[in-house]
Amino acid sequence: MHEEIKSKLRTRMDKTIESLQEEFKRIRSGRANAGLVEGLVVDYYGSRTPLKQLASISVPEPRLIVIQPWDKGALPEVEKAFHKSDLALNPNNDGKVIRISIPALTEERRKELVKVAKGKAEDARVAVRNIRRDGNEEVKTAEKEGHVSEDDSKKTLDEIQKITDEYIENINKLMDAKDAEIMEV
User: Which residues fall within 8 angstroms of residue 88, CB to CB, at 6 or more apart?
Assistant: First the structure.
């Protein structure tokens, strides 16, 4: 039974890590990254559509993102979506593609982005701890109901703590890497 609980915990914690990685992709660093814009929502013929479903997004140079909509009629809407977004990027529409130059970040802006990233990492750590709590409660309930011995319960709780520590360490490594990426000039 405790293998089933641990498997469930790992699955939920993996989803937390994946979610954090997606959040980190959206946090701008000094270099171009398709993940920065692919989630941008465009009002396309009355429906809100993610940019990655409307266009090909490429990064031909370290500080340039090129967006080529499959439907040329979507260009003005894509441009509008950038102006409405909080990305602070300036799209350049030449009638065929949209080019976005990624300007260098100021030191102050880098520090703000690191704070944002740290907040996302802390949210992920809290989520992992909540998952641990759920697992611990499940084990304690099973022990009270007599499905698991006290020794097995203690062993499983220790294993859950080790899994939690492993995921928290993973989050810390992701945060350190994102911090380095944001702060590099």
Answer: none
Question: Coil, strand or helix: which one is 58?
Answer: strand
pTM of the model: 0.74
- Read off the pLDDT of residues 50-71 as tens digits, 9 standing for 90 and up: 888 888 888 888 888 888 888 8
pLDDT at 171 over 70: yes
Helix or strand (DSSP H, E) at 44: strand 41-44
CA distance 163 to 58: 37
Task: Using the CB atoms, write b or e for 116-132: b if 16+ within 10 Å.
Answer: bbeebbeebbebbeebb
Torsion of CA 60, 80, 26, 66, to 10 degrees: -10
Cα gap 110→131, rounded to integer Å: 32
Mean pLDDT across 85-89: 74
CA–CA distance, 171 with 134 (Å, rounded to integer): 19
